[in-house]
Protein: Enoyl reductase (ER) domain-containing protein
Organism: Actinomyces glycerinitolerans
Amino acid sequence: MRGVVLEGPRDIQVIDREDPRIIDPTDAIIRITATCICGSDLWPYRGEDDSRHQVMGHEYVGVVTEIGAEVTTLKVGDPVVGSFVISDNTCEICQAGYQSKCVHAEFVAYTVGTQAEYARIPFADGTLVKTPGEPDPEIVPSLLAASDVLGTGWFAAVAAEVGPGKTVAVVGDGAVGLMGVLAAKELGAERIIVSSRHADRQALAREFGATDVLAERGDDFVAKVKELTNGFGAHSVIEAVGTAESFAQARKSVRPGGHVGFVGIAHDVQIPGDELFFDEIHLHGGPAPVRRFLPELIGLIWERKIDPGKVFDLTLPLEQAAEGYRAMDERRATKVLLTL
Amino acid sequence: MRGVVLEGPRDIQVIDREDPRIIDPTDAIIRITATCICGSDLWPYRGEDDSRHQVMGHEYVGVVTEIGAEVTTLKVGDPVVGSFVISDNTCEICQAGYQSKCVHAEFVAYTVGTQAEYARIPFADGTLVKTPGEPDPEIVPSLLAASDVLGTGWFAAVAAEVGPGKTVAVVGDGAVGLMGVLAAKELGAERIIVSSRHADRQALAREFGATDVLAERGDDFVAKVKELTNGFGAHSVIEAVGTAESFAQARKSVRPGGHVGFVGIAHDVQIPGDELFFDEIHLHGGPAPVRRFLPELIGLIWERKIDPGKVFDLTLPLEQAAEGYRAMDERRATKVLLTL
């Protein structure tokens, strides 16, 4: 089969990869019908993780083509969406809603690599969710978004305890930040403040429910959020970048007793304990337990209540993945969908 | 009046201080009937904060002797307990339960200094809570504990989301850690694991409800907690020390999705963002909003349901405060009550 490989920094190639096959009885093989490039793929792409000869991709919508002997909830032909983390969905950690930290957790990125025609999904019953029927092509991008970027933005909003009547600040106008805006709106936030300087992302943020789009960054953003909230800061802040600057911006934008939900993969972030102590805020985040939210998110998409697929602003065939990575790296695209 | 002053590192003196008087119409003057020495007093005592000529003390039980023109809930003669942070208890932050971050917040330590015969309490209506009547002498130590150390341990347990059926680990066997054990028990925890190597503190921890007292520290403690929890870690962890080592011990003892409540004043703590991200835990803490809990805690003490006053293992007259500081510094005493 054809699949994307990162050969070295900024060297994306689409090559012939070995067809996946059932190894464990809890595996399923799926034919991927849509996949995409994640902001987090840019870390290894840019050489931050020194990855070489690396299969890529962890977001996917597909159809089951083969199941292992112990798979019980899926059959060949089922259309499915899966999480970017493998989970059994039965262990104590999964049952508490933290499938991304399942005792059998494994990142789909780098091991499975779903920027490809087929994928082997371990613990298929606990990782994949069947859609109510064959999805209309128009909602495939939204279902694909549920696989990670929507699920991650949603988790960030839940972790930030977004709710009715609350003011939410979103740090990051990438795809996850924009999904955080959508989630905040859906979860009933009264005011949604987002930091963005890109006209297209500003427009999408407003479409998803942002009430205030600020060009300010860093301490200027913090000052502006305080100005908009009687000096208190936001009730909830979504951190969707992962740098020291964005983390500090998020932390300082929240009021005492408020909540920061952080989902940007932290790179070179050190949180000063004394400041955190006297700020008296809540911090929660990490790799989103997308599997917790998938049934609900699929339902919202199926009923056309949310349209997260709008976050894709460039669609390319899998064979042109390299151009997709370049477009995201150069911020010419917010998020790139790869067709098969 | 007589009052305790830290003249310089390890130099505690009891001197004549000016009698406090009403300055603002929301002030009350109280005659202090009992006060004590806090573990946090040891930071300046040991020279960590380079404090000199500093009034000391922030825990207090007393009787109102004078009120400002705008004080409405108190009258002269009322027996009261107050928080270690001044609060108006009416602002938006107070109403959300974060009185320690009130817009009028001010630390009683270092400004008021309640290791003294009298104290001026600003925002008396929002800071002090009247007891149901004249307290029996036997419960005065417990009411005094509510002023900070019990309220702080209680907040830590609430911040760590302690509840029925949960396993709680407590890092720190000082007075606050011990109060965390008591709070965890009262809040319904099933298993309470505490780290202690001091026979007297171990005994008190067991009396307050600890089910497992471990001599291990650091990574050995973490390993033991995991061993006791099917490899997962505790649901809730109370951090009651404030060093880099204790903070790491707390963070690593909690399971994914679990909660760390931290109340040790953080000194030289840097939390690595990448570890926090992949640990996927909740962090919440800071100066305890004791005022939130005071009415409930006074009620529990009044009804003899809890006996936090047992945490005091040395009682001295105010004039011998210097010996009290020495005893706590040298860990000869867990917590020292000063009588007036």
In short: DSSP finds twelve helices and 19 strands in chain B. The mean pLDDT of chain B is 97. The two ends of chain B are 11 Å apart (CA to CA). Chain B touches chain A through 40 residues (CB under 8 Å).
